Amino acid sequence: MGGGMGGGMGGGMPQPDNKGHIGGGKTTDLTRKIQKTLKDLGVTSKDHPLKLWGVYLVFLVITYFVFSGGDFSVLLTIASATRSFAFLTLLISLFISSSSSLVSLKTLHLYLCVFAFRLLSIFRHEGYLPYDKTGDWFYHFVEVTALAFTAFTAYTVHVTFKSTYEPTHDSFGGGVGGLPSQLGELVILAPCALLAILIHPTLNSDWISDVSWTFSMYLESIAVLPQLYLFQRGKSNITMLTAHFVIALGLARVFDGLFWMRSFTELTSSNGGKFPGIVALISQLGHLVMICDFFWYYARALKEGGTEMVLPTSGSMV
Known about the structure:
Strand content: under 5%
Strand order of the largest sheet: 1-2
Number of helices: 11
Organism: Triparma retinervis
Number of strands: 2
Mean pLDDT: 84
Radius of gyration: 20 Å
Helix content: 55-70%
Keywords: Endoplasmic reticulum, ER-Golgi transport, Membrane, Protein transport, Receptor, Transmembrane, Transmembrane helix, Transport
Protein name: ER lumen protein retaining receptor
GO molecular function, one term: ER retention sequence binding
InterPro entries: ER_ret_rcpt
Structural class: mainly alpha
């Protein structure tokens, strides 16, 4: 993340106990190496958010001037890079805090599906790729990177810091239709899959590819819901690094939305109908509506210069 990301680690990284555990989880040589690297780089939970966003902006400038041809469709690649940045931020947050209590595994599982199904489509066909030269290979690379970050984050929550995970708070979907909490993701997965089967564009003229891409788009629109639900259930004080994760996901949807507001008419059905494009655009905006007040509390925390973002104990986010 760069050597300019703040000073020392304050009290330092949590140290393993005599059983080789950190933060109540299972530590490995890789875990220790990652935490040592972050410490050497001076990355800390007290870093000013603008430093982190500064690194992000540098990457976007490189993406635009080095890998992009400057076409409007580069917004899709920028959105993808922003999602990758979001999960990298969350991963860093986990290793700095040695705790997964602020993380929803359900959201991570849903995003794994988002990236996997999108890659299933874009590796087979070109219909939903950016028009500019990032669509040749760079967009694929960024999406694979996002999938890798998400998978490693999920592994870290499942294994490395398992005992700090709080399933009682990460209980979105539990009890709906008699579902156990462990299967709460189905409350989101099933409707998105059904909607994608019924309403999808046909840019690739391939049913599996078109439905896979559409499913990933619908799913991404609401995959953050379990994370917001966790915040509301048990965590009103959120570290800024964790807040960066949610904000970056929302920012990615802003870039996606800007592109599809201009291009949604290209998402037509097999008979030329415009309805799939309209539904796609609504799904893009839906994500932003869900987290609009989260943006407000984040902006207020930035203004106050604190290391935590404070949410109300109840509110309109979920």
